[in-house]
Amino acid sequence: MQWDDLRIFLAVARDESLSAAGRRLRIDPATVSRRIARLEEAIGAALFAKSQQGYALTDAGQRLMDHALRAEQSVAAAREEIAGQAGRLSGQIRIGAPDGVANFLLPQVCAAIADGNPDLEVQIVALPRLFNLSRREADVAITVSPPTAGRLTVLRVTDYRLHLAASSDYLASHPPVRGLADLQDHRMVGYIPDMIFDKELDYLVEVGASRVALASNSVSVQLNWLRQGGGIGIAHDFALPSAPELQRMLTAEVSLTRSFYLVCHAGDARMERMNRFATTLAEGLRSEVARLEAEVDAADQARGALNPAGA
């Protein structure tokens, strides 16, 4: 059994497609198919079952997956040790994250990491769902709840805040909001209820909103609805500097706190490269959340100074 065959096997297992695996590996799908057939012949068992949904692992494929992942980790560790990168990160690392952190935090944090590591390739996969690290959908994932199953290492990165927000134009043209009860007279923006993939994202329950008139599974879509004067919703404080037309509301009554967790496959914890990347990423996220939230607080203080109570 050759490592190169296992590398192709892993690509098909992750992408569930010969053509997608070929693109990942930069080889044609016919070659991928031949190499998988050769590996199956050597093992004496079918590794994939083909269906309309793609290539799914058989029981034999699932058993081989664990061994192939360990081989991949060993090869990566050996390359890193032999290369002697003198503290620099290199190679490709894929981060899976909800689209809020993927849009408003990771771009600048990862760009800063890349500045100091020119041989590093960073990929951000922004999806409103949980990631399967065992299948290597991502090398590391950022979550809002710590996972409770799987061979994973979990690092609590930082807390972040969320508040009710709306555009100045919306508030100027609709009834005043003096308390939570007044929200019943307003159009609410939030998640599609049956597509909330983590209980920590069910924000509007905490403010007693019974109906979401404008709903999306994407934080970015929700924020843009708020910016366009679509209604009132819960927004991440760290996203508000990118939307100066929005202002926080009822901050004394509604102030939510959530946490980000950095999750890696347990086998990767032994790799010095992944440890360094995870540490650098966590430090960058902490710093960026603190910077952006301080910027929002300063903007609110300035707004209050310009519009003192009773003026």
Automatic annotation (TrEMBL):
One of the Pfam families matching this protein, by short name: LysR_substrate
Keywords attached to this entry: Coiled coil, DNA-binding, Transcription, Transcription regulation
PROSITE patterns attached to this UniProt entry: HTH_LYSR
Single GO MF annotation: sequence-specific DNA binding
Residue ranges of domain HTH lysR-type in the record: 1-58
Coiled coil (UniProt feature): 275-302
GO BP, one annotated term: DNA-templated transcription
Superkingdom of the source species: Bacteria
InterPro entries according to UniProt: LysR-type_TF_proteobact-type, LysR_HTH_N, LysR_subst-bd, WH-like_DNA-bd_sf, WH_DNA-bd_sf
SUPFAM superfamilies, per database record: Periplasmic binding protein-like II, Winged helix' DNA-binding domain
Family: Belongs to the LysR transcriptional regulatory family.
This protein's name: LysR family transcriptional regulator
Originating organism: Pseudooceanicola pacificus
Taxonomic lineage: Bacteria, Pseudomonadati, Pseudomonadota, Alphaproteobacteria, Rhodobacterales
